[in-house]
Design a protein that fits this description.
mainly alpha, 107 residues, Cytochrome Bc1 Complex, Chain D, domain 2
Length: 107
């Protein structure tokens, strides 16, 4: 009986640690990887096949560089060119978080 209780406790601790590791990345990073990565790429350079086919502007493009965070938020919310609008799919906080992660590539 003690062995069973001890095993359950160990199992609960291991499961808890595994969940904590899953949340180690920021929500912006996780959203970017889920929603944006295929087209914008791991570094924002839009070098993937999908990004090139859709003519996604890389983060190094002067037009992208001059956009404010608010302008980027609006583009994600309302869509831009072939990019779908995420209004209704993502909250404003999620949009702001993913844009914040993307803006790290501007440096």
């Amino acid at each position: 009986m003690k062995r069973s209780v001890r095993s359950n406790i160990v199992l609960a601790v291991v499961a808890s640690l595994a969940c904590t590791a899953g949340f180690a990345q920021s929500s912006g990073e996780a959203l970017y990887k889920e929603k944006c990565l295929n087209c914008h790429g791991a570094d924002g350079m839009a070098s993937s096949g999908v990004g090139q086919a859709m003519k996604v502007m890389p983060v190094s493009n002067p037009q992208v560089k001059k956009m404010t965070e608010e302008e980027m938020d609006a583009k994600v919310r309302d869509g831009m060119g072939k990019m779908q609008a995420y209004k209704g799919d993502l909250t404003d906080a999620q949009i702001k978080s993913s844009v914040g992660y993307f803006r790290r590539f501007l440096k």
